[in-house]
Amino acid sequence: MAGVSPTIHSAHKIAVELKPFLGDSTSDEFHLAIRQSIDSCILLAKTHPERPLYIAVPTDVYYAFFEGAFAQVILQESRVDIVVYDPDTEEIEQWRNSSPLASVFS
Fold it and tell me: Closest by alpha carbon to 55, among 23, 21, 26?
């Protein structure tokens, strides 16, 4: 599971998959990220079932694409959790959770 790093947040173990979205098409990168996260979730469930997977998305991509209706429907239906980060400061700006741990990270 290359690119997935276990992390601890609020005493819970999680896995974070960094997605810089450097390609020419944000839509293509989005679909690739969703497909890869599904694969990673399946493998993570077998090896570390206690760790939810988060996709780390840069702030500019999140606000320009992920807040749109299309992306929101896909994220909700696929139950993908998002960490929005500022690539310049390397700080997390927000947690977008679909998992039962949502109240812990909000």
Answer: 21
